[in-house]
Write a structure and sequence with these properties.
The protein is of the alpha+beta class. It has eleven helices and eight strands. The chain folds into three domains: 91 residues, Beta-Lactamase; 104 residues, Beta-Lactamase; 79 residues, Signal transduction histidine kinase, dimerisation/phosphotransfer (DHp) domain (Helix Hairpins, Orthogonal Bundle), CATH 1.10.287. The strands form two sheets. The chain has a five-stranded antiparallel β-sheet with strand order 5-4-8-7-6, sandwiched between helices. Helix 10 packs antiparallel against helix 11. The protein is rod-shaped, with a radius of gyration of 45 Å. 15% of the residues are buried.
C-alpha cells in the first residue's frame, strides 16, 4: 500500500478474503473497504508509523466484503522507507479470523447467558478449579452456605463446608479428587453467629480435559433442604407415634380379652355343674339358656383375643 493507503499489489489470498478481483482492489484504498467503526483506530496507527513513533503495528479489524458481509482480519503492518528515511510503502499481512471471532463472540454470549441464568437461579451453583478453589459462585450459593462471594471466590470450597457437622465429608472429598468420581452428600451445617443449623445437599461433578485424561475443574450445587428434612422428621415422628398407639391399643385389647375370658370359663364351668344337678324342667331350661349364651360369648372373646395377638405381632 502507498503511504496514502492505495493498494499497490495484492495476492490471490487477499482478493479471496475481501471478495474483490485484483483489478478492483488496486483501484481502491484500504479506507474504502475498512469498516467505519474501525477506520479511525487504523488511521491513528498508520499516522504513528509514518511519524516514526513505531515501526510496525498490529490490530484486529473488519473489512467490508464485496458481498456486503463483514470480514474480521488480523492485520500486521510495517513501513518501508527509502535511503533518506522517507516513507515508500506499507507491507501488510492479512489473516482471515472471521471464524475465530464468531466463535469467541458465541462463547462470550453463551457465558453471559449462563451467568445470567445462574445468577437468578434458586439453586446454589459454584465452580472450582482442579484442586477445589472457587472460581465462580452465585448469590444463592453464598446465601445457602452462609458466606459472601468476596470471601468464597479464591478460597477452597471445603473451607465453607468445614462448618458441616459431618465427619465423612472431608474424606469423601479427598476420595472424589483422587478418583474423579462425583460427590453427593447431605450435611448438617452450623450457621455462624447462631444456634441454628441447616441441612445442605452438596453435589460436585468433575469436568475433564478434552482428552479425558484428568480433571480440569469441578461444578457443584448446594441446596438448602432444611425444611424437607424437618418435614420428613415430623412425618417419621408422627408415624412412630401412630405405630406405638396402635401397638398399645392391641396390647390393651389382648390383655382385656384374656382377663375377661378367665371368669367366663368359670361361668361356663359352673353352668355345666348346675346342669348335672337335680333340676326342675324350668330350672334346666334356664341353665341351658345360660350355657348357650356363655358359650357364644366365650367364642367371641376367643376370636377377639386371636385378632389382638395378630395386631400385637404374636
Amino acid at each position: 500500500m502507498s503511504p496514502e493507503g492505495k493498494w499497490l499489489r495484492v495476492n490471490r489470498a487477499m482478493c479471496e478474503i475481501v471478495g474483490y478481483s485484483e483489478s478492483e482492489l488496486l483501484s481502491k484504498t484500504f479506507q474504502d473497504i475498512t469498516h467505519p467503526d474501525d477506520l479511525d483506530a487504523d488511521l491513528e496507527l498508520v499516522r504513528g508509523v509514518l511519524a516514526g513513533d513505531t515501526a510496525v503495528y498490529q490490530m484486529d479489524k473488519r473489512y467490508i466484503h464485496a458481498s456486503g458481509r463483514v470480514v474480521w482480519v488480523q492485520l500486521d503492518v510495517s513501513l518501508v522507507r527509502d535511503r533518506d528515511g522517507l516513507p515508500q510503502h506499507f507491507i501488510a499481512q492479512v489473516q482471515d479470523i472471521t471464524r475465530r471471532r464468531t466463535t469467541e463472540a458465541q462463547l462470550r454470549e453463551s457465558e453471559a447467558r449462563f451467568r445470567r441464568l445462574a445468577s437468578d437461579a434458586p439453586l446454589g451453583i459454584f465452580q472450582t478449579d482442579a484442586i477445589g478453589k472457587v472460581v465462580y459462585a452465585n448469590d444463592t450459593w453464598a446465601a445457602t452456605c452462609a458466606t459472601t462471594l468476596d470471601s468464597a471466590v479464591g478460597a477452597e470450597w471445603f473451607t465453607v463446608a468445614e462448618r458441616a457437622q459431618h465427619d465423612d465429608l472431608r474424606a469423601k472429598w479427598i476420595w472424589a479428587r483422587m478418583t474423579g468420581e462425583p460427590l453427593s452428600e447431605s450435611v448438617r451445617m452450623s450457621v455462624s453467629g447462631s444456634d441454628q443449623a441447616r441441612w445442605i445437599d452438596i453435589r460436585l461433578h468433575p469436568m475433564t480435559t478434552d482428552d479425558g485424561s484428568r480433571t480440569a475443574a469441578w461444578v457443584g450445587t448446594a441446596t438448602d433442604i432444611t425444611q424437607l428434612v424437618e418435614a420428613n422428621d415430623a412425618i417419621t415422628d408422627s408415624r412412630d407415634r401412630a405405630v406405638l398407639a396402635s401397638q398399645m391399643k392391641s396390647q390393651f385389647l389382648a390383655n382385656m380379652s384374656h382377663e375377661i375370658r378367665t371368669p367366663m370359663n368359670g361361668v361356663v364351668g359352673m353352668a355345666d355343674l348346675l346342669a348335672d344337678s337335680p333340676l326342675s324342667p324350668v330350672q334346666r331350661g334356664h341353665i341351658n339358656a345360660l350355657r348357650s349364651a356363655a358359650g357364644s360369648l366365650l367364642a367371641l372373646l376367643n376370636d377377639i383375643l386371636d385378632f389382638a395377638k395378630i395386631e400385637a405381632g404374636k
